[in-house]
Structures are given as structure tokens and as C-alpha cells.
């Protein structure tokens, strides 16, 4: 197969440009004529290796791709032709190049799942496993639609959680900025005024000035920066180890309010992913492998992998999950009922729905809970600095009033 660069006009009068593979230029011309196109130019691209462009594919892009792919397959359009259409539809240059490589592999006889599997940076394990299951069952359109729904729900959940954290993060950054401005600009100015006036300063003011003097020295700034940078990289290295990550994730789950929220999110994600895979015909062992890898928490990952070992030894799913103590009784009992009744996917979907609703309610409540806490924090920090600065002025005013 040779690679050609083409410029043609389609039936609608739109000029199309791009690259395509064909045996010969005459075969390519015949192909375009059959499509009702007017050929302007066809040029072979020689001695050029096809390189994939670097980039990133957002979840939204993958959802749109899957939705469109579903529509095309439901319309009885062959996979190769559908991929060709999708390649032209995609605006993301990196994603377009990925689809082009997938299309090339499928044309050469590879299965869709193996072609997609070469690009795991774009297509997650759950996507690949579901497509592979679809190839076996012959229900590609149905499963692509299912994976689209799963990606949409997962993305919506992640966005809601991030929105809950944005507000406090912004407020904390503002508090740090205001405090830094006061300590590095305002306090030194007041210190100069107080030095010129002489006399003993009130204790809070003296403490504030001493702290500012210590922090504004070059040596102190260097030490603080070294500690912050060293602490950041040290922490990053620590949680990159298996034991460090496990200990960190265990602590995270025990943090008041936020730990409970993160646990609900993890259980919702676990249940939704598990339900989607089971419904798509993926084996239970493979389901648990994928669920463990996508859990985002080492404690939950260990619990799921322990469950996988038990299943391989002929035990149930629910028993080892219950032993870990990570999953609430309601979750393990519903999974147990699902196993016994043969409706595991249905029970998991119910669990996922319940915990997603719980997460929504908790995220909404967090905003109203965090706001007064942050306002109180700002009031104490900024208000304390301002009061300390004006204490000497109040003292001088009282002395002048007493003299009068």
C-alpha cells in the first residue's frame, strides 16, 4: 500500500484535502470517481514515515466519537467505512491521527479491539474490554452506546467533585496572597513608622513584626523554598511506592467529611464500572482486574484484587469484599443478593445510582459547610494582622486623650 496526498471536491461542492492509502494512484482516482468526487490532484508521499502527533484526548471527545460510531454501526455502515467518516469528523489533530492508525490496522485485517489496544493512552482498559466483548457477542453498537453512557456518567461525577474543591482552593490561594501582601509590604511600612515614634510596642504587634522580620530575610526565604520543594518531591516519591500509596490512601479515607466523600465516589465508580462490564459480557475475573486498576485508591484496589483471588478459588465476590471492611454492609449484601439471583449487574447499577446521588447531595452540602469555615479562617488571620497593626495607634490615641 502507498500513501497519497489528495485534493478533491465532493458532491456538495466542498473541497477535501488529506492523505489516504491505496495500491496505485489510478485505483485511488477510480475510488473518488465512484464516490462522485472531482479529483484535482493526487500525489504520492514518498520516504515519509507516518508519525502520530502528540496530544491529549478529552473524555468529551471520546464520548462524541463513541456516540457517532454507535450511530454509524446502527445504520449498517461497515466498521472500516465508519472509521473513515469519523476520521474526517474529528477536530482534535492528535485524535484524528490515532483514528487514522486504527483505520489502517483494521484495513490490514486486525480486529477493532486490537487496533484500539495500540493506543491505551486514548482508549482506557474498560473501553477495550467492552469492544472485545462486543466482537464476540456481535453487539458492537449496543456496547459502544453503553460505554458512552458510562464515560458520560464518570465524567459528570468527576466534574461535580472538582467543583466542590475549586471554591476552597481559590479562597485559600486568596488568603495566602492577602496575607503575603500584608506581611511583605504593609507590615514593614508600619514598622518604619513605629521605629520613628519609639516606645514599646504591644505584645501582639511585636510578635507580628518579629515573624515578618524572620520571614522576609533572604536566608528564611531560601529555607522555606527548599523545605516546600523538598517536601513536595519527597511526598511525591513516597506515594509512588506501593506501601506509601497504600498508607496515604488509607489516611485519606479517614479524613472527616472529605474522606467520607472520597469513599462514596470510589464505591460509586467501582459499582458503575463493574455493572457496565458485567452487562457487556466481560468475564468476572477480567471485570475485577479493570475495576481494581481504575479505582484510584490503593486500599480499594487491594480489596478488589483479594476478591478476584477468592473467585479464582471458587468463592463468592461479596465475602472477600466484606472482610476488607472498606465496603459498607449494604454494598456487599446487595452484591451477594445479585450473585445468588443472577442479577449482579442490576444490583451493582442500583448501588452505583445510590452512591452517585449521595455524592451529589454531599457535594452540594459541602459548599454551604465550607463557606463559613473559610470566612472564619480569613477573619481570624487577616483580622488578627490588621488589629495587631493598629494596636499601637490606638495606644497612642489613648495616651494623647489622657494628656488632654
Structure description:
The chain is mostly helical. The chain has three domains: 2-44; 59-151, Type II secretion system (T2SS), domain F (Receptor-associated Protein); 157-404, Up-down Bundle (Receptor-associated Protein). It has 16 helices and three strands. Strands 2-1-3 form a three-stranded antiparallel beta sheet, covered by helices on one side. The longest helix is centred in the C-terminal third of the chain and has 60 residues, at 344-403. It is extended.
Write a concise synopsis of the structure shown:
By secondary structure, the protein is mainly alpha-helical. It contains 16 helices and 3 strands. Helix content is 76%, strand content 6%.
Strand order of the largest sheet: 2-1-3
Instruction: Classify the fold: give the CATH topology of the largest domain.
Output: Receptor-associated Protein
Sequence of secondary-structure elements: EEHEHHHHHHHHHHHHHHH
CATH superfamily of the largest domain: Type II secretion system (T2SS), domain F
Question: What top-tier CATH class of the largest domain fits best?
Answer: Mainly Alpha
* Separation of the first and last Cα atoms: 102 Å
Poorly predicted runs: 48-52
Amino acid at each position: 500500500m502507498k500513501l497519497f496526498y489528495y485534493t478533491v471536491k465532493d458532491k456538495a461542492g466542498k473541497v477535501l484535502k488529506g492523505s489516504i492509502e491505496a495500491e496505485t494512484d489510478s485505483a485511488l482516482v477510480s475510488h473518488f470517481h465512484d464516490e462522485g468526487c472531482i479529483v484535482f490532484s493526487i500525489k504520492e508521499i514518498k520516504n515519509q514515515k507516518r508519525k502520530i502527533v502528540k496530544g491529549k484526548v478529552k473524555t468529551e471527545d471520546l464520548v462524541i466519537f463513541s456516540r457517532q460510531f454507535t450511530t454509524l454501526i446502527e445504520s449498517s455502515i461497515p466498521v472500516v467505512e465508519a472509521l473513515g467518516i469519523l476520521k474526517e469528523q474529528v477536530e482534535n489533530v492528535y485524535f484524528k491521527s490515532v483514528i487514522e492508525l486504527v483505520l489502517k490496522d483494521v484495513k490490514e485485517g486486525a480486529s477493532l479491539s486490537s487496533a484500539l489496544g495500540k493506543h491505551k493512552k486514548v482508549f482506557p482498559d474498560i473501553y477495550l474490554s467492552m469492544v472485545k466483548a462486543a466482537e464476540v457477542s456481535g453487539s458492537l453498537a449496543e456496547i459502544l452506546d453503553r460505554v458512552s453512557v458510562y464515560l458520560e456518567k464518570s465524567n459528570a461525577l468527576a466534574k461535580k467533585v472538582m467543583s466542590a474543591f475549586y471554591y476552597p482552593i481559590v479562597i485559600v490561594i486568596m488568603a495566602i496572597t492577602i496575607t503575603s501582601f500584608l506581611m511583605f509590604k504593609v507590615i514593614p511600612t508600619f514598622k518604619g513608622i513605629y521605629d520613628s515614634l519609639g516606645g514599646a510596642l504591644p505584645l501582639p504587634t511585636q510578635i507580628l513584626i518579629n515573624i515578618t522580620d524572620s520571614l522576609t530575610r533572604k536566608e528564611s526565604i531560601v529555607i522555606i523554598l527548599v523545605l516546600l520543594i523538598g517536601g513536595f518531591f519527597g511526598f511525591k516519591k513516597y506515594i509512588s511506592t506501593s506501601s506509601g500509596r497504600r498508607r496515604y490512601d488509607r489516611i485519606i479515607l479517614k479524613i472527616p467529611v472529605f474522606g467520607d466523600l472520597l469513599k462514596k465516589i470510589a464505591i460509586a465508580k467501582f459499582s458503575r464500572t463493574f455493572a457496565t462490564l458485567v452487562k457487556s459480557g466481560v468475564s468476572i475475573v477480567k471485570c475485577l482486574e479493570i475495576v481494581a486498576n481504575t479505582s484510584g485508591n490503593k486500599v480499594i484496589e487491594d480489596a478488589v484484587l483479594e476478591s478476584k483471588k477468592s473467585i479464582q478459588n471458587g468463592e463468592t465476590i461479596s465475602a472477600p469484599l466484606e472482610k476488607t471492611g472498606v465496603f459498607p454492609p449494604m454494598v456487599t449484601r446487595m452484591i451477594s443478593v445479585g450473585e445468588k439471583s443472577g442479577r449482579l449487574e442490576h444490583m451493582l447499577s442500583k448501588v452505583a445510582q445510590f452512591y452517585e446521588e449521595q455524592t451529589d447531595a454531599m457535594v452540594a452540602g459541602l459548599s454551604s459547610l465550607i463557606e463559613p469555615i473559610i470566612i472564619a479562617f480569613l477573619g481570624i488571620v487577616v483580622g488578627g494582622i490588621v488589629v495587631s497593626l493598629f494596636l499601637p495607634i490606638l495606644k497612642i490615641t489613648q495616651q494623647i486623650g489622657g494628656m488632654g
